[in-house]
Structures are given as C-alpha cells and as structure tokens.
Design a protein that fits this description.
The structure is a single chain. This protein is 69% helix and 13% strand. The protein has 126 residues and is α+β, with helices and mostly antiparallel strands. Strand 2 and strand 3 form a beta hairpin. Helix 1 crosses helix 2. The longest helix is centred in the C-terminal third of the chain and has 66 residues.
Length: 126
C-alpha cells in the first residue's frame, strides 16, 4: 500500500522519491525502495510510450490508459492464478483418490497373497 506524505505527518515507513513523466512524487511504503522505483520506471515507460503513440493525449489521459492497461493485466493475472489454484486443487484431490485406491489395492493384494498361501498349504498337505 502506498501513501503520499502530508506535511507534519510522521510515519515509520520507507520514503521513496520517484519521477513519472517529469513529475516527482514522494511515496511512503513498507515495500523495498528498489521495488517501488522499479514500478515507477515501468509506469514512466508506459506513460511515455502512450504519449508517443498518441501525442494529442494529456498526461492525465495517458495515466488513465496506463491504469486501465495495468488493471486489465492485474485482473487477467488474478483470473489465471485462480485457474491454477483450481487445477492444483483438482490434482491434489486426484492424488488423494489415487493414494486411497493404492491402499485398497495393497490390502487386496495382501489378502489374496494370504489366501494363496493358505490354499498352497492345504494343497501341500493332501
């Protein structure tokens, strides 16, 4: 989570100075400053690319388009992660089912082996 610094407000978090499209911002965050700087560089590059491809857009319009693009990527990544979680859950359930089937098969093998042994003993005693 990110917070803008307000005058007179004291917070025990990392203060990170970043620059996006020529505007400077001071961000207060619990995240690693290098990570926040990396995010700022990403947004700055996307804003500049958007401004270059559509020179008539204002900085605010570029920011909105970049925000929409990032929200889209986030939503798709979340859906993909949810799909992967569901697949993993299915795999775990399949694995548990297979383990149970193996246990049942082992018990049946044991039972049949004992029965086979008993039958061999009875045959040998005749």
């Amino acid at each position: 989570m990110y917070f803008f610094i307000r005058k007179g407000e004291i917070m025990e978090k990392n203060k990170v100075s970043i620059k996006i499209c020529g505007s400077s911002y001071t961000i207060v965050t619990e995240d690693d400053p290098a990570y926040v700087e990396e995010l700022a560089e990403l947004i700055d590059e996307e804003m500049k690319a958007t401004a270059q491809s559509s020179p008539t857009l204002s900085t605010t319009q570029c920011a909105v388009l970049v925000a929409l693009d990032q929200a889209d990527a986030c939503k798709k990544a979340t859906a993909s992660a949810d799909n992967l979680r569901a697949q993993i859950k299915d795999y775990l359930e399949d694995s548990a089912r297979a383990r149970m089937e193996v246990d049942v098969a082992r018990r049946e093998i044991e039972r049949l082996s004992k029965e086979n042994s008993n039958l061999r003993s009875r045959l040998a005693n005749r």
